[in-house]
Hints:
The chain is α+β, with helices and mostly antiparallel strands. The protein is built from 7 helices and 11 strands. The protein has helices at 2-17, 30-37, 41-53, 106-112, 146-152, 163-171, 189-195, and strands at residues 57-60, 64-67, 72-74, 93-103, 122-132, 135-145, 158-159, 175-185, 203-212, 217-225, 230-232.
Amino acid sequence: MALKFKHVFAQLQMKIIFGEWPEGFRIPTEMELCEFYGVSRVTIRRALDGLVTQGYISRTRGRGSFVLFKRSVVGLGYPQIVTDSADKIPRGYYKILQKELVDASPTDKLQIGLTDKPEDKQIWHFKSLHFVDGKPSVLSDYYVAARFGSQIALLGETSEYSFFELLSKEFGQKCHFVEGKVAAINPNEEICKQLGIDCKMASLWCRGMCVLDDGTVIGRCTKVFNGLMYEFAVDSEVNFSASRH
């Protein structure tokens, strides 16, 4: 029964994720699903319970089960959210979970363009969690050259502005997320706990560089998106040159 339950759950999940069953859609009854998939009512209930737990549907006695799932679309330029009604999107707030000085690795020196001077031996690490409607949505790790991170480290733990917006305000230039790489991952237990998601569920992960308008590399970052809230879009027309010197 366990294999049948997982199969049915995956099939129903895909119908929701790919839009076959849109937000607000009343899904077939338990008996209809039993007949369609050729399984017992217990199996169907386990699959539906899993969808409820992960926030895909709501179930009301006497009314049925309805799709709740709706994801925003993000691109490599996050935090910009790609939508036809961007002005209606709640910004939420950003919370710094951790800020510390760490030793710069050889990779950091190469990617960020650090020198052998004493002030470049360490970089700032910031861990930030974005909340939307009270729900954790994106967990970000930023590794920033000390000369830039020292100013950000003085700021408070919560802000209405994203890390990129804070950098832009501080240095008078827009900060961009460039050279991004995207993957689907199963986050570790710590990340799942911070995002409030099931570790068995795949999430979107990306990494890239933080670069100012003039090409100055601020640092590097990685992001894990709550898979219940986001899907990804890639803009292939972006062409930005980063300068590390």
